[in-house]
Automatic annotation (TrEMBL):
The chain crosses the membrane at residues 6-29, 36-54, 60-83, 95-113, 119-138, 150-173, 193-217, 251-272, 284-308, 320-338. It comes from Ruegeria marisrubri. Pfam families: BPD_transp_2. GO terms for biological process: amino acid transport. It is a multi-pass membrane protein. Keywords: Amino-acid transport, Cell membrane, Membrane, Transmembrane, Transmembrane helix, Transport. This is ABC transporter permease. It comes from the Bacteria. One of its GO terms (molecular function) is transmembrane transporter activity.
Length: 350
């Protein structure tokens, strides 16, 4: 392998790593606050990419019908639960929160779709349509079993992935879509080495979003509430922080990050309704390197995954996924060696 080829692969790897960085941050955020290993993260990213593709071609995105269906189902389930509990007074607020608020982005999308929209407006509409999907699905799937074990929540997340994949086929169809690049052309980063503006945009946007993510957690009250819930759920409840509310905010932020991931990756690869699993699993490898708890280590893990995938595709394209996922083995061995294991405190009776 020559130096020029190595640099080209490095640039491509940094572009992929920027995607896995955002996805990994979303996975760590959701797990730390809700204990859910959010397997369907990639499915939400795919919905963002497909929504943008529909808006670019002047068609009404099926995301509107998907959000409306999920909102109606969520409201129905919540009303049944409130009636069983005898809290009928909370029904209007429930209809507002879970029925009307998620539909707010749908009206402007229906009115504006079909016209020649500027790029920034199509991106904003795609993000706005995608954001309600995760909180609605989480309310249906995870809220009733919020106190279950991590294993049960993982099984529910897997079920949610297959459900979203089926909904993607139902609403978007089997066709693949690729959006137009936001920037065209390339720049020479080193003598003889060029990088497309689209890859530089992916890297820059990911770094900016990661920085905003850090600032939001460190400087805002919502971020501090999420950190408190992640560190000590019982303590957060004692000071008035509602885990259900923080979970909803968390899933909204995860959905927003997933929407950005889909929008950034859509010009680089053709997206299908079932393309999300590979994105989520590779981001999961980076999150595992960070122990599903450390954001800086997750960023380093995502960088390693992106670079390894790029070089592996050059060595053996058919085995690149196997090589990437094999990174889990040394990561788990190292973390198992350096982590402390809780001993069983129960003593055997004599």
């Amino acid at each position: 392998m020559s130096w020029d080829i190595a640099m080209i692969l490095t640039v491509d790897g940094l572009g992929a790593a920027s995607i896995y960085l955002l996805a990994g941050l979303g996975l760590v955020l959701v797990f730390s606050v809700t204990r859910v290993i959010f397997v369907p993260f990639g499915d939400i990213a795919v919905f963002g990419a497909l929504t943008l593709a529909y808006l670019e071609t002047g068609r009404i995105p099926p995301t509107i019908a998907l959000v409306a269906t999920l909102a109606a189902l969520t409201v129905l389930v919540e009303i049944v639960r409130l009636i069983r509990q005898g809290t009928h007074a909370a029904i209007p607020r429930t209809v507002l929160n879970w029925g009307l608020l998620p539909l707010l982005p749908c009206l402007p999308a229906m009115l504006l779709a079909g016209g020649d929209l500027p790029t920034y407006l199509t991106v904003l509409l795609a993000l706005a349509l995608v954001v309600p999907i995760t909180p609605l699905m989480a309310r249906l799937v995870f809220h009733p079993i919020a106190d279950a074990s991590v294993l049960v929540l993982l099984i529910a997340a897997l079920v949610m992935h297959f459900l979203l994949s089926g909904l993607g086929l139902l609403f978007f169809g089997p066709e693949g879509f690729r959006t137009q690049p936001f920037l065209r052309g390339a720049i020479e980063v080193l003598p003889g080495i060029t990088a497309s503006y689209q890859i530089l945009l992916m890297i820059g946007a990911s770094l900016v979003l990661a920085a905003l993510f850090f600032v939001a957690f460190e400087r805002t009250m919502i971020g501090k509430a999420l950190r408190a819930t992640a560190l000590n759920r019982v303590g957060a409840q004692l000071v008035g922080i509602r885990p259900a509310a923080t979970a909803t905010v968390t899933f909204c932020l995860a959905s927003l990050l997933a929407g950005f991931v889909g929008i950034l990756i859509a010009p680089a690869t053709t997206m299908y309704y079932d393309s999300g699993l590979a994105i989520g699993l590779k981001a999961f490898v980076g999150a595992i390197i960070g122990g599903l708890s450390s954001y800086p280590l997750t960023a380093l893990g995502s960088l390693a995954v992106g670079l390894l995938e790029s070089f592996a595709s050059f060595w053996n394209g058919a085995m690149k996924d196997v090589i990437v996922f094999s990174l889990l083995i040394p990561a788990l061995l190292v973390r198992s060696h350096f982590s402390t294991h809780a001993e069983d405190d129960a003593e055997e009776e004599v």
